[in-house]
Design a protein that fits this description.
This protein is an alpha/beta fold. It has two domains: 5-127, Response regulator (Rossmann fold, 3-Layer(aba) Sandwich); 141-395, Rossmann fold (3-Layer(aba) Sandwich). The protein contains 17 helices and 13 strands. The strands form two sheets. An eight-stranded mixed sheet has the order 8-9-7-10-6-11-12-13, with helices on both faces. The protein has a five-stranded parallel sheet with strand order 2-1-3-4-5, with helices on both faces. α4 (90-99) links the parallel β4 and β5. α2 runs parallel beside α3 and α6 crosses α17. The longest helix has 25 residues, at 371-395. Mean pLDDT is 91; it is low at 128-134. It binds adenosine-5'-diphosphate and magnesium ion (MG).
Length: 396
């Protein structure tokens, strides 16, 4: 089999040398260009199977060169392009996606990471030959996870439920971290700081499905993630945008509905404009609680708020987490304090939960058959079954 041809476009001769050496060692054939215009010409004449493109180059920068290459491509052809940039700037990443790049890698990077990304892209571009498969319509269900207070396990349940829906029930699942200031999915899922976030999705004026898919991280657990920004200050950008243009959140959510069977949102505790709009647009709101007095007090407040907003009872469901932990308040007591039943329960297994958090691998990926994994799977199945029942009722 002929070696895969990779075009390296970078004006720095040292980087050219290092990349050429690394690639040749891995068995790739290497072509070199020293500016953007040369890259465009070489791409046209020599038809490489992948391009590594520095963003800052003379004559034409990497973005412009990528655009020109895409513009010159015949229908049905698509050479994978990886941009080499020098800072993990999300705006820059969006610019790259818009120009038509498939991936971006931030300098300095480890050769093994580069090789892994190249392999992934080459493998993917091999798959896309043939007519595109028509996708079936999605369930388009929007489910929120709202903690009655911090630390009750909202994030743990949102992430692991999502994985169960994806793995076990083969649903397409998008997960949004709407905890704008202190979102911690990157920690729970062992991700670096460089990927895009909800800030990008909310600030793009003409967000479409294609761009949204690229802003979301395809995680090995099976989830598509829209992450929270890496700095608390960026939260202001989203809040500002949401206030000035509530449409931008609606647009984001409706794109998610069209892309995923389930869009799960892990929310922050505040009752602010953003969260109120989320409540309004949701199909179901799972209020996560523990059986302690301060939680029960908060749940009462939340339920009253939901009543005032005029939501039907069935839109708001109570999920008692750590249900068998000793707190002195049992489920019956909790139900009588709240004047309604607890809809779902997830058991307590502190070691499994904290071990998973600290290792960056959710228990639903590493130990789906453990007691906690089974308990969350049961919740995910109930959630999915309820939708099936509703759909059947609507069709009847
Ligand atoms: N079912 C459970 N059993 C035991 N520990 C849990 C359970 N769910 C969550 N935890 C632990 O509780 C802590 C808070 O969880 P987290 O999901 O971050 O809560 P929140 O998002 O509500 O702040 C974490 O240490 C987590 O491991
Ligand atoms: Mg959380």
């Amino acid at each position: 089999m002929a070696a895969t041809r990779v075009l390296v476009a970078d004006d720095d001769p040292n980087i050219q040398r290092v990349l050429a050496f690394t690639l040749k060692q891995e068995g790739y054939e290497v072509l070199v260009a020293s500016d953007g215009a040369q890259a465009v010409a070489t791409a046209r004449e020599s038809r490489p199977e992948l391009i590594l493109m520095d963003v800052a180059m003379p004559v034409l920068d990497g973005y412009a060169a990528t655009e020109q290459i895409r513009a010159g491509e015949e229908a049905g052809t698509h050479v994978p392009i990886i941009l080499l940039s020098s800072g993990a700037d999300a705006a820059q990443r969006v610019r790259g996606i818009r120009a038509g790049a498939d991936d971006e890698i931030v300098k300095p990077f480890h050769p093994s990471e580069l090789i892994a990304r190249i392999r992934a892209l080459v493998a993917r571009s091999g798959d896309v030959a043939g007519p595109p498969q028509p996708e079936r319509a999605t369930f388009g269900r929007l489910c929120l996870f709202y903690g009655a207070k911090g630390g009750v396990g909202t994030t743990t349940i949102a992430i692991n439920t999502g994985i169960a829906l994806a793995r076990d029930l083969k649903r397409r699942v998008g997960l949004i971290d709407a905890n704008l200031q202190f979102g911690d999915h990157r920690v729970f899922l062992d991700l670096g700081l460089e990927s895009a976030s909800i800030v990008n999705a909310m600030s793009e004026v003409d967000l479409d499905l294609d761009l949204l898919r690229k802003l979301m991280v395809a995680h090995r657990s099976g989830l598509a993630l829209l992450l929270a920004p890496t700095s608390p200050e960026s939260a202001d950008i989203v809040m500002e945008r949401q206030r000035a243009q509530p449409d931008s959140l609606s647009r984001l959510l409706s794109l998610c509905r069209s892309a995923y069977d389930y869009t799960l949102v892990d929310m922050a505790k505040a009752i602010d404009d953003l969260n109120l709009q989320l409540f309004d647009e949701a199909d179901v709101i799972f209020v996560v609680l523990n059986a302690d007095l301060s939680c029960l007090k908060n749940v009462q407040l939340v339920l009253r708020t939901m009543d005032n907003l005029g939501y039907e009872r069935s839109k708001v469901q109570l999920v008692l987490n750590r249900s068998n932990a000793y707190t002195g308040i049992n489920i019956k007591n909790a139900e009588s304090v709240l004047g309604r039943k607890i809809d779902h329960q997830v058991i307590n297994e502190y070691r499994a939960a904290i071990g998973a958090l600290n290792s960056g691998e959710p228990f639903m990926s590493s130990r789906p058959d453990g007691p906690l994994g089974k308990s969350v799977t049961e919740f995910a199945r109930a959630l999915d079954a309820e939708l099936a029942a509703e759909t059947a009722a609507a069709g009847a």
